[in-house]
Every structure is written in structure tokens, then in C-alpha cells.
């Protein structure tokens, strides 16, 4: 019989290896699922993981998409990881992402058709503020009344979605849009457009911001007192209070930072790849980023890699839908499997498996 | 071994029990016999293998080799239920009771086939009266004192009519008077033929209660004796296998008052905690103030109000004349008030973090380990290494997780971390709880040295011997109130017991 024995300290070796194992296990289980759907499993896996990067016809189109999709995921996940490290569970990044987009786009559209170079920076600021403010709602409720931030932040996603529906049909609707819902397209508004920095790479301001966020988070967590307090609070809350950590400040910092980064991601998305505020521009990055944060072990560098991998499954998944006629739900299942295997494999870094011939109590 | 005579009459015989864990042999060919009606002491330092041995007898751990014979029949329990049905019961050091349930409900939960509630309550009353352990089955456990909670555990065992009762550190939470009651009960049990396997660090108790002792060191049986014929010091040396270093101190005249608490009251943050009421006490430079009392009488809260985790009214706590009552932990540390809480894992140290990171935990301010918010890892690691070296912490290095250290080593690290920061006042709660004899001696010595160099030291402890050994003045916590301190010179057990039980309240100012 198998039993688990707790390691005296978590194994660094397994902590690094489990994401790789989880990806492999996902490929196997996913391949099995594709096979049951009547598709060739190897071909499906290849279409998802290989073709987007190296296919002759699709590669040049898909490759830039990798950064475009990964940037918001990384940006949001880095922010979330700070809170998750400290045991503060912001599940509502999707809402903060939408609010950042609405606020940032709102500021830009208010100045249409100005050509001032200050417009885009003002939008960035407004986007960050919008996300920050939306995250402050669960934050302040938690520190003031002890509400559960998981529930409040999640509920606020639905509020944000309804606000998005409202503004894209009302306040921010394109006056020249012949009655269609959705704002003006930022492509027609150069001063406010989140343009591609290096042509053909997908590199836009959001990608740059994501890289900066990764470096910032890395330095914070490994070199700064605040990062130490974040980790300590997550590892041993009582020891953190003993060490003089102010829980209120830490909760507001973690929620505020993750909200601001999610807001930024929303702004960069709406003013760039998406191009306009529409009822459904958001495409769920805020939720997927939770998977990315855990897939990356809540570590900034890990999140960078996990974001790229997740972006790949997005692009590859679309390609598989197109080429093999796989249903979209199967692709979502595939991403869910990744999260499932990752959490299951986690056991290996904290426990060692022992095989015993006889049963013990 | 005392020879065949013991084995022939034995209730339980252990023969060559061996259990190995990765990297350590917890028990190596352990053999001895327990006679019916005997109080058999199991002595040994922490890590000597006592708990592994007991777990094998109680069916929690399966031995790799060797056999056990109970009542002339082979005995190899695969789980505690099997051990219980063979007549082996155990009272654990840490209680496993639900605060929100009644005594009877708690007992029913621990039974394999509980009778109906009314019948069970009647049985509880009957047994508790028969053994002189008064206990109302309808009371809620959350309202019981530690001594009463232990009675719940003992009665839970007695209801099963055990032949062998294993007790792990049973007196650590009791007042001297409660210890007397417990010993009365145990003597009644042995008179009826029940054998007791008694584990304790308190050698005086073992000398007064036990007829036979088996001494374990590093997993081996190194000696057996009749503890009544040995002195406590001789017993300790058998355990350590070395001459024991007894903490020594030089007489010193106490200096000016450093820390003063004036009418401090605080509501406990936890529902089953104890509120502090009107605590007034002064501590002088160079003295050790010992605070006794049964667990759960406000020790954690007293430490919290001094560490800054809990805050008092402004003006009620002064350090060198400055009001610190409303300051946060690090502001207090900056002024020289350092503390070490009782719970090592998760309170005074973060178990999954490295020793270096744990050195930073309280050392950041006074050791200047942070520069404008940025951590100075080099300096922090050097500090951790200094603690490890000066306090003889046994670990491969500062990168190891705090949780991987044994209790004694981690405690040496925690105390060392505070002592090496040169405190004006050091407050420690249970500095040697669960720590082996030699580590405990080292910790006590370091506290005495600290006081000798002019710091004021407050030691909160439930170990009266420890307090008598190192404290200049003694006082006790009872239901969140503090008695007036008295000199430990010539203090008798009667007075101590009264202070712990709140009897001195009238004389308190």
C-alpha cells in the first residue's frame, strides 16, 4: 500500500519539476480525451503546442499572438501571486481588469480627437487606478468588517461585467457607430492607441509592462522587507504579527497592487489588441491568470514561463478548433486539466511517497 | 534487565523492539517488562525514542523488529482501537478535546462503542467519584481548567478498564495541589493492579511516584533503576550520559526599574482565551522575575501585551520611563523590549522558512538587517550563523527550514536570536517546554547571563523547578490576575500553590 510521508522541508527539486510533469500528464490525459472525441491525439497535441510556433503558414501569424495573449495573463498573475503568497485571495481580477479598461478607455475617449502625447500616459494611469479602486472595495470591506475577500471580489466581477455592458451600449458608445454597441476603435485614434512597439512581434506597451512587473515582483519578494512580510504572512500568520507585520496594510497593499496590475492589463488590451470597449472584449484573462499564477508556483519567473505556456494553449486551441474542428469546450477542459494535474502533483514537493508491503495505521 | 523474575510476572514485555526512520534509529532493540500494579517511569531526553516506543505499544507505529507480549500472549496492535481492546490506554500530552462540546460528548467521541448519553453520564460520575476526580459530565470543555481537561482524558481511559495506562507528561499543566490529586488517583489504580507507564521530564515526581525506571538514550535502553533510591541529579545524568551542567549565577544587586506595568487590562483576542485584569508589576535591571501559573491563566495574553501583538492603554506600560503601551512590536524592539512566545512553530518562528529568514523575523530592527526597505541577506545570514554557533544549535546550516530542527534546537535558536540582540528587557514564555535536559540547562544559563549583564528578564513558565532555579522573585498568574511578587529565597510549595490558585489575591495591592 502507498502512503505519504511529509518531508521535513519542501523539496526544491520536485517544486521545479512538478510543473513539467503536470504539462506531460495533461498532454497524456488530453490526448486521451481528444482520442475519445474521435480526433487523432498526437496531431491534436501537435496542433496545440507545436504548430502555432513553427507551422509554415500559421507560424508568422501566431507567433506575435503569443506575446499579445501572454502579456495580460502575466501582468495579472504577478499581481495575484503577491496576495496568494500572503493568503489573500483575490479571485476577482477579471472585474478589476474590466474596470481598468473602462476607466482607461473612458479617459482616452473623453479627449477624442486630441493628439496630445499625454493622452496615452493618462489612460495608463486611469486604468491602473480603476483596477486599484475596484480591488479596494473587497480590501476595505475585509479590513473594516472582516468580510471574505474571495466572495466579495468574485461578486464584483459580475457587477463589472454589467457595467461593461452598460457603458458599451451607453456612455462610451461610438457616436458614429450607427447604433452598434461598442466604443470608438482606438485604431482610429492614434494618440490613444497601444501600438505595436516592434513591428511583427506583438510587442506592445502591455508586454513591456508585464516584463517590468515580473522584475519588480522578483526584487520585491527576494530583496525587500515588504516581500518578506508577504511571504511570512502566508507561511505563518501568527509569526508575522509577532514580527510586527501590520495585517491591514498588507491586505490593502496586496489587493491594491493586484487590482492595479489587472487594471493595467485591461487598459492595454482594450486600447490595443481588442481596440474598442465592447460587451465581450475581456475574454476571461482575469480567471485564467489564477491558473497561470499557480502554474508558475507563485514565483515571478515561473509566472513568466507559465503565461507563455498558457498563451500557447490559447492560440494552439484556436488553431485546433479551426483545423481539426475540436469543440471550444474541449480546449477549456484541456486548460482545466493542466490546473488539476498541477495541484495534484504538488503533493510530491511536500511529501515523499513510500510503498509498504503491509498496511499500517 | 532485572532478569527473569520480572519477565515471568510481567503484564507487558517488550523484546528487542526496533524502529528506524530515514536517517535515525528511533528505537534499537529495546527490551523491558512492566509488572501489574507498577508505576514504571520511562526516562530520556527529547529524541531518546520515548514517544516512538509508546506509539508502538499503543498501535500507532509498527515496529520493524521485535515482539511484545501482553498477558502471556503475543501482542501486535495494528491501530489504537486494537490496543484499547487489549487493555492499553493512553493519555496524551496534548489534549484532543473539542472546546464547544460537553464532557460526556467528548468522551463518547473517543469511544469505540459509546453507550447512550444518559448511561454514559452516570458511568462518568461513578468513575470520577471512585477515583477522586470530580467532574460534571454536562459541562462544556471550553470552560474547564487544564487540570479538569486532563481529568476528562483520564476518565475516558478509565472507562475502558485498562490494564496498562500510558501517561505522557501528565503534570505539565497542573498546580502542585492538582498533581497531588492525580497521584492519589494513580495510586488507587495501581492498588487495583493497573500498570502505569509514566513519561515525564520532572525527576522529583518520578522519584516520588515510580517504583521502576527504564532510561533511554539515543534509542537504546541504557539503564534501569529504582528511582526512589536515586537523586534527581543522578537520574538526569543517566539520561544525558554525562555530568549535568547546573546553571549557576552570581549574586547581584538589582538596578533601577526598567519595565513597569501599571494596572494593565486587556481583552483576550481569542474566544477561549483569558482576559488580563489590572496587572501591576515592576522589573529591575539585572533581575529575573519568574511568573508561574497553570497554563491558560493568561500567559499568552501577558506575553502578547508585552510583545506589542496586543496593545494596552497608553501610559500603563513604561520602558525606562517611556510610555510604550500603544506601540507596535518593532517599535518596542527598537527600544529594547524583546520577547519569545511559547509556541515555536508558527509563532516565534516560521517553520517552512530558513533559519536565516527566521533570524530576520525579529532581528530586522536591532541588528539593522534592513536598509531603506531592502534586505541585507549577507548580514542576516551572518547573524543566523552567529546564533547557531553561540547557542550550539545542531543543524547543517542556516539554509535549513526552522521546522526541520528538533524542539530543543529550535528553542535554542529562538532564545539565542533574542539574547544576541542585547535586550534591555527579555520576556520569555515557557523557554524550556519540550526541551531536553542539556538544552534546557543551556537556555537557563543564557537567561541568567543576560540578567547578570544588566538586562531585566521575565520568565513565564509552568515548570516550578525551573523558576525556583533561576528567578530572583516569583509571582503567579491566576485567571488573568498577577499576585504580588515575592522573593524566591525560602519560598515554600504551600505559598506557591496558593498564589497559583489565586489565594494570595487579598494581599495583592
Describe what you observe in this structure:
- The complex is a heterodimer of chains A (361) and B (509).
- Chain A is mainly alpha-helical.
- Chain A has 2 domains: 1-39 and 326-361, no CATH class; 66-324, Orthogonal Bundle (ABC transporter involved in vitamin B12 uptake, BtuC).
- Helices cover 69% and strands 4% of the residues of chain A.
- Chain A is built from 15 helices and 4 strands.
- Chain A has helices spanning 12-36, 41-49, 51-54, 59-85, 93-110, 119-145, 149-169, 205-223, 225-235, 237-242, 247-270, 285-295, 300-324, 328-345, 347-350, and strands spanning 2-6, 196-198, 203-204, 351-355.
- In chain A, strands 1-4 form a two-stranded antiparallel ribbon. A two-stranded antiparallel sheet of chain A has the order 2-3.
- In chain A, a hairpin with a 4-residue loop joins strand 2 and strand 3.
- The longest helix of chain A has 27 residues, at 59-85.
- Chain B is of the alpha/beta class and 509 residues long.
- Chain B folds into 2 domains: 4-240, Rossmann fold (3-Layer(aba) Sandwich); 257-507, Rossmann fold, CATH 3.40.50.
- In chain B, 33% of the residues lie in helices and 23% in strands.
- Chain B contains 17 helices and 23 strands.
- In chain B, the strands form 5 sheets. In chain B, strands 13, 16, 19, 20, 21, 22 and 23 form a 7-stranded mixed beta sheet that branches. In chain B, strands 6-7-8-3-9-10 form a 6-stranded mixed beta sheet, sandwiched between helices. In chain B, strands 2-1-4-5 form a 4-stranded antiparallel beta sheet, with helices on one face.
- In chain B, helix 4 packs across helix 6 and helix 14 (407-419) packs parallel to helix 15.
- Chain B is globular, with a radius of gyration of 24 Å.
- The A-B interface holds A 8-10, 223-226, 228, 231-232, 235-236, 238-244, 246, 358-361 and B 59-62, 78-80, 307-309, 328-330, 333, 339, 341, 343, 346-353, 357, 360-362, 364-365, 370, 373-375, 377, 400-401, 403-404.
